[in-house]
Specification:
Elements lengths: L9 H18 L11 H8 L3 H14 L2 E4 L3 E4 L3 H5 L2 H8 L4 H22 L2 H16 L4 H19 L2 H13 L1 H10 L2 H17 L2 H43 L1
Antiparallel strand pairs: 1-2
Length: about 250
């Protein structure tokens, strides 16, 4: 008896459709700023259901590739080609990569990047990293600006490390954990984060690669611990809320 081919999941179809969009853009069939054909026409052209097409369009909209305007249609954004060139974004959106996995990846790689930055930093590199850190010191009261500068501090280290592949990959990882970084910043006083950054900066200034590696490990382990404790408290709060709701229901 002949085995039936497995029915592709919606995620498989979404990934395939996004690949088709990438090809159409690279071939020039879809132009930035241009309007996409109607959903019915696209679904027929791609040989998929309209619900599968809508899921792919929703992912593209979240990524900033397209804009869906009510009553007007769907348009390809100006920055679509550059956005679609970032495979890490697809991985995170389509494969359900967890924040825990992202933080684990940071712990595996970022300490080594910090070590290489310490070993390779020029006078100009150290001046740039110091400038970012000083800006963080001045923006303690503005949480949004503080988090942006926090990311810039790490991304500057990536660049100084001298490995362009890791710089591209981990800049994308960083942008993907933006909400996590904002959450950890809200859990502690800014001085807590600045202290870890000062230690990393001091190691880079000295050109001490082992110390820079260790200081980055300490920084990321601290952030991971903060997030784990927050998640536990949130789960406990949800459980208590659920139990209270059940108690009220049984009394009524």
């Amino acid at each position: 008896m002949k085995k039936q081919a497995p029915i592709p999941s919606k995620d498989d179809i979404t990934g395939r459709l996004i690949g088709v969009f990438k090809d159409l853009i690279s071939e020039g069939a879809l132009q930035p700023g241009g309007r996409l054909p109607a959903e019915r026409e696209l679904a027929e052209k791609f040989g998929v259901s309209r619900s599968s097409l809508r899921q792919a369009l929703k992912v593209l909209e979240i990524m900033g590739v397209i804009s869906q305007r009510v009553g007007d249609g769907t348009y390809l954004n100006a920055g679509a080609p550059s956005i679609l060139s970032e495979p890490m974004e697809f991985l995170i959106l389509l494969d359900g990569i967890s924040f825990h996995e992202l933080m684990e990846a940071r712990l595996i790689v970022e300490p080594e990047l910090a070590a290489r930055a310490a070993a390779r930093a020029t006078t100009e590199d150290i001046a740039e990293l110091t400038k970012v850190h000083t800006a963080m010191e001045r923006q303690r009261a503005d949480s949004d600006a503080f988090v942006e500068l926090d990311m810039k501090f790490h991304e500057t280290l990536f660049r100084i490390s001298g490995n362009r592949v890791c710089t591209m990959m981990f800049t994308m990882v960083h942008r993907s954990v933006h909400k996590l970084m904002a959450m950890t910043a809200s859990l502690v006083d800014p001085e807590h984060t600045l202290l870890f950054h000062r230690r990393i900066l001091a190691a880079v200034r000295k050109g001490d690669a082992p110390d820079a590696r260790q200081r980055m490990i300490e920084h990321l382990e601290d952030a991971t611990g903060l997030l784990a404790r927050t998640a536990a408290r949130q789960n406990e709060a949800r459980l208590l809320s659920r139990l209270s709701a059940l108690a009220l229901k049984s009394e009524s």
